[in-house]
Each structure stands twice: as C-alpha cells, then as structure tokens.
Fold histidine kinase.
Amino acid sequence: MKTLRKRLTVTLLLTLLLTWAAVFLCQQYAMNEARTGIRDQTLVDSANQTILSLRRGLLDERPDERFKLPPSSHFRGERTTVQIWSLADRRLALRSPESPAQPLNPHFDDGFRDSVIHGEIWRVYSLSDASGQVQVQLARADSVLRAETVAAFKRGLVIVTALFLLLAAATWIVVRQAFRPVNQAGEAILRRAPFDLAPLPLDRLPGELHPYVQSINALLLRLQAAMDHERRFLADAAHELRTPLAARSAQTEVLLQRIAGTPAADAALPLRAVAQRTARLAEQLLDQARMDAASESGADFGPVALDTLVVLLVRDCEAAAARKRQRIQLDVQACGARGDMDTLGVLVRNLLDNALRYTPEGGQIAVACGPGEGGGAWLRVADDGPGIAPAERARVFDRFYRAPGANGGGSGIGLSLVAQIAARHGAVVAFAPGLNGRGVGLTVTFPGNFAPA
C-alpha cells in the first residue's frame, strides 16, 4: 500500500528528475553549439591569417622552390590540415604534411562544408583571396569535436547526477519532516488506552488535515456520549436490580424452608436457581460497569498483595463451597502484582465463582498463587469438573458466550471480565490442566513493573 508520503516523494522526485534532465540536455546542446561556433571561428581566423601571409609570386615558383607548411599547431593539438590551391588551373600549390593530395573541398566554393576524407568526416573551411587566384582550405576532424562533446557530456552527467542525488535526499528529508506531526499523531493514538476517547490535538498538524481530524474528534465525542449513556444505563440497571433480586432470593429461600419435605419443594428448586442466576448476572453487570469506569478514568495502579487478596476471597467462598460439599485447597506464597485492587478482586472472584459453579457436589478446587519471573506473579484456579472442550476454549472469553451443555447456571460474563481485567493489567490468561485428570485450570500471569498505557 502506497502512503501519501511515498506518493508525494515519488512525484516530487520524478518532476525534479524530468526538469533536471531537460535543463541538462538544453545546456549540453547550447554548449555543443558554442564549441562548434568557436571551432568554426578559429578556422575562419586561421584561413584569413594564411591568406594574408602568402607572398606574391607563389604560384609562379617551381615546386622545388616552394616552402613546406609545418604541421598545424592550432586547435590545441587537434588534427587539422591546410591546402593552398591555384583556382586558375585547380593546382595544389602548398599543403601540410598530413594533408591528402585531393582537394579538401572539391567544389572550391568559399565557406563551410563537411567532407569525407579517408572514411572520416572533416569540417572544411575554404577562403579565396581578393583576386580569386588562390584558395586556402583548412580542415579539422569532426572526431575531435565529438570526443570533446562526449567527454563534456560525461562530466556534466556526473555532476548533474551528484546534484540530483543531493536534491533527492533533501526532498526526502523535507517530506519526512513535513509528515512528522502526522506520524506523531498516529503514534499518540496507538499509545492511547482502549477507552481514551479524548479529542485529538490539532496543534502542529498541517492545516489540510484539520477538517479530517475535526471530523474524527466529532465522532469521538459522539462515541464517548454513547458509551457514557450505555455505561450509566448498565450501572443504574444493575444497581436498581440488586435490591429486588436479593429480596427475591431471600423470599425463595424462606419459601423452600417452609415447604421443605413436601412435594412442592422439588418444584420450587428451579425458582431458586433462576433467582441466584439473575442476581449473579446483575452483580457481574455492575462489575462490568465499574471496570469500564475505572478504565476510562485511568485508575491509579499500585502494588497489590495478591496472596492476601486471594486468601480473603477464598474465605468468602467457603460457605458456598460447603453447601455443595466442595473442598478448596489453598496454596499461596507471598507475591504481589501492580494493578487496581478493586478490578483484581473482580478477576479473582470470577475465577473462583466459575470453578464453584461448574464443579459438581463433592468436587475439589485448587487455588494457588506465587511470585513469577521479573518481579511478577501468577494465579491458578483448577477444578475437577466437566472441563472445557478444546474446540470451545477460544470462545469462552467472549461476552455472554456459554459452552454447549453447560449446566452451571452461569451468565457468560465471568470469564469475559477475567480476560478484560487481565489485558488491562498486562497479564496473560492461559489454560492449565485440571485436577485428577478432569476439569480445567486457568492461569493468570502478571508481569513485573507493569505500567498502564
């Protein structure tokens, strides 16, 4: 997936490359034309000097009396050649040693012309004297100009490439710096707590992004209002239901005591189970509301004596275990975890309630905790109940999910609360073996020195 930064960088670099290439080619063309003009002007000046330096009677002298032209030293050592022709009889009067016997310009017209000499292209300039009797022909090999042009092109290409790379690096740095506020805003969002719906700050963000961020902030405000409304409704409903449900449970117990030993007692037992389940559901909904409120407010985390907390909650569960003739084995070692006392209490209580609820009468429950690695701690609750099928274990932490065939009367919220509280404390919940080859165990491992986001 291409990001806006990549697209912007690529677009700028392509534009820069095309512009740079166009400027470079235009510059090379202009420089080549200038070099050609300079060479041509040099040929013109040399021809004029040669015409002016010819002595009178040159054409009447015998060949053995004529002087020989030395090799040309013009054009900074380039290959050049000179011929002096008698126009009356098209006779070669003088020539430089490297000059061929045939005319450099067989048309004998004044001016510039390109001629092929020994299979090579030469630039020829011809100039006649005022009387029209003598013509000077000077030629220069085009290979020299081409070699200079190629060398100049290579030098320019190296310089242009180096400058382009510097500009590309500068462009990448500038674009990266321009997008730094956007990246910082994204990182700040990732570091937020799950229930942190505070508006995103607009400072340091580019003005083009303000409408989008403002729209997100408006959405966050609406989401915050909806969550607050849902949380208040959940807390109020659970709180309002606690009293009548507790009264209903008490009345059910009184009724069962009065009709004990009668045929109606068996018919009233399901009524007690429903009352207990409804009361537990209301209690767990209230726990959920409290945990959400604590998560949103960012309750301060501090050291919690996990072993003391476990002992207190196990003592609270002993009466319920005694009613089902269940045995609770307690094995605690001094250990602590960093977190919120209230929500950790909800976690331990739900683990114990889940074990008590699904372990049959006369069953056994083992509760243990101890210090972990790096200053952390671990908590394990295991039973010898029916257990949880491996295929169902991935879903038991979903809210309101109950495994098929579960007869414990649970509401499907307990383990969901356990998973949420563990995640808030940076802890890991894992399945462990049950007792006596049956049942299931749950282990919660708390890290050391955990700091909430």
